């Protein structure tokens, strides 16, 4: 069963178990009430990583099916408002990303900011909280993707990054299992650190003591449906084993 709202989509809400799969940057959609559905960028830019996590939604959907876990996905572009940022974060409404100016965000007034928070940011987070609250000792598996190269810097070598805070109950065994696969280059808190004040994990997991892991997949590896399905099939048994070994306190 799928529940679709303006700000989010939930797949398999009634699936049992502790696991909840989240995808904060699932969509590049700009709702019609915001700039008539445009932030002033061409379609080519809206299809880039600056607008959403390319391939992450497909991987999340397949993971949810394989793990029999509910999946919650955002239904708005990170350029509308970034749900993986705190409300006081200066990058909540991005004006410049990977060399691209975001015209629709350059002169954003308080009224427009409030509308985006009230219609998209807050409803998404309320839905995540409600989904977690209906489970005993929930475990969050957050799925993201990253671009191979950004801001003209060196290419990133990692196929998969496992991001974590000080809570490494799941990340340590995940890293161990992934590093046993010789064809993979694995990043520990790469391509960036796993803790950002006010981000989704900081909001929904850390203060409540929920076990969690954030998986970053390089987006050139998950562009097609087949690639997304294959990566989900590769990750699902590892996640299942790691979570089953983590005691439900």
- Uncertain segments are none
Ends apart, CA distance between termini: 29 Å
Number of strands: 10
Shape: globular
- CATH architecture descriptor text: 3-Layer(aba) Sandwich
Biggest β-sheet: count, sense, barrel? 8 strands, mixed
Q: Give the radius of gyration.
A: 17 Å
Task: Give the helix/strand class.
Answer: alpha/beta
What is the string of SSEs from the N terminus onward? EEEHHEEEHEEHEHEH
How would you state the average pLDDT, rounded?
Answer: 95
CATH topology: Aminopeptidase
CATH domain class name:
Alpha Beta
In CATH, the homologous superfamily goes by the name Zn-dependent exopeptidases
In percent, how much strand structure appears in the residues? 15-25%
The number of distinct helices, counting runs of at least 4 residues, comes to 6
Total domains: 1
Strand sequence of the main sheet, in spatial order?
1-2-4-3-7-10-8-9
Percent in helix? 25-40%
What does this protein look like?
The chain has helices spanning 43-46, 56-67, 110-133, 171-179, 200-204, 225-244, and strands spanning 2-4, 8-11, 19-23, 71-74, 96-97, 100-101, 139-146, 160-163, 186-188, 211-218. The longest helix has 24 residues, at 110-133. The protein contains six helices and ten strands. With 249 residues, it is an alpha/beta fold. Helix 4 links the parallel strand 8 (160-163) and strand 9. It has one domain (2-244): 3-Layer(aba) Sandwich (Aminopeptidase), CATH 3.40.630.40.
């Amino acid at each position: 069963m799928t529940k679709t709202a303006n700000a989010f989509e939930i797949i398999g809400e009634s699936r049992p178990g502790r696991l909840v799969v989240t995808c904060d940057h699932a969509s590049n959609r700009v709702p019609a009430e915001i700039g008539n559905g445009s932030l002033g960028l061409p379609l080519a830019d809206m299809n880039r990583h600056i607008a959403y996590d390319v391939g992450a939604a497909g991987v999340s959907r397949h993971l949810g099916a394989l793990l029999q876990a509910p999946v919650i996905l955002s239904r708005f572009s990170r350029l509308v408002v970034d749900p993986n940022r705190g409300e006081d974060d200066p990058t909540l409404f991005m004006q410049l990303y990977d060399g691209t100016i975001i015209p629709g965000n350059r002169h954003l007034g308080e009224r427009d900011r409030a509308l985006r928070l009230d219609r998209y940011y807050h409803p998404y987070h309320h839905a995540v909280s409600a989904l977690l609250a209906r489970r005993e000792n929930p475990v969050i598996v957050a799925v993201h993707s990253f671009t191979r190269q950004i801001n003209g810097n060196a290419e990133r070598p990692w196929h998969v990054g496992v991001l974590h805070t000080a809570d490494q109950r799941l990340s340590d065994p995940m890293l161990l299992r992934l590093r046993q696969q010789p064809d993979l280059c694995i990043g520990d808190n790469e391509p960036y650190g796993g803790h950002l004040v006010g981000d989704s994990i900081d909001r929904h997991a850390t203060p409540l003591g929920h076990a969690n892991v954030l998986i970053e997949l390089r987006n050139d590896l998950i562009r097609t449906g087949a690639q997304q399905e294959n990566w989900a099939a590769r990750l699902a048994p590892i996640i299942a084993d790691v979570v089953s070994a983590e005691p439900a306190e």
